[in-house]
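User: Run a structure prediction on this.
Assistant: Running it now.
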Amino acid sequence: MTMQPTQKIPLVLAALLFILAAAAEIATGRSGIAVSDDVTERARQVALARVDEALARHDVPAARRAWLQAYEAARQTRSWRAVADAADAQFRIGMVSDARSAALPRARELYLATLTRARAERSVEGALRAAEGFARLGDLEVAEQALRIAGRLAPSTADPTAAERVESTRGRLLDHSHTAEITF
């Protein structure tokens, strides 16, 4: 028994829909197909460079678009560095845009994610980077908490200067006479 041409149309349409759905999954990054870490890292670095280029031109909409690309690439990694870079870029955008009240809280969320990832990786450097971000935002209470986490991580690292770096950063960040609080 052979199929009539009109009977093949639903099968062909179903196959095309399946292919389009698979392509959409891959394009949006929701598929189970792994993307090379090198490719993701290169895309992230290019997007971060585009943020800075757009900000140098005072093109905030282009900076936001580039930031979204950097953020998506950061989400694909488990690295605290990628999230910290996205947080820093969001902070820079917030400082020059009229949408400061939206950008800076988003940067804060990303610094919290940085701290969480750094703690999971047992990274003193990551906890210090998060502390610096919170201090720039004027959130000295959370900066102090990040410094405490860094201090607890320091003895378990191979870096003999880790504890010293934590204390040096603590002195620099928590010297209240030099810190300007950012209001949202």
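The chain has eight helices and no strands.
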